[in-house]
Amino acid sequence: MANTDSGTFLTVAEVADLMRVSKMTVYRLVHSGELPAVRVGRSFRVHEHAVEEYLGSSVYNAGQAG
C-alpha cells in the first residue's frame, strides 16, 4: 500500500517542543481526543498536519465578546 499522504509523524516530545508545552500536556490532548495520534508500539506519533490543525483551531481572539 503506497503512502500518498505527505508530511511527517512526530513524537510526543517533538510535538511538545513545537507547541512549547510539556509532554504531559500533549499526552492529555491525545487521550482526550483533541489531538489525533497513532500508537506505535508503546508510544504515540502525531501527524504534523494534526498539530497544525489543532493550533489553528485553538486561536484565542481576546477582542471578541462572548
From TrEMBL:
Annotated Helix-turn-helix domain residues: 9-55
Taxonomic classification: Bacteria, Bacillati, Actinomycetota, Actinomycetes, Mycobacteriales
Protein name: Excisionase
Domain of life: Bacteria
InterPro entries xrefs: DNA-bd_dom_put_sf, HTH_17, SinI_DNA-bd
One Pfam family linked to the record: HTH_17
An example Gene Ontology molecular-function term: DNA binding
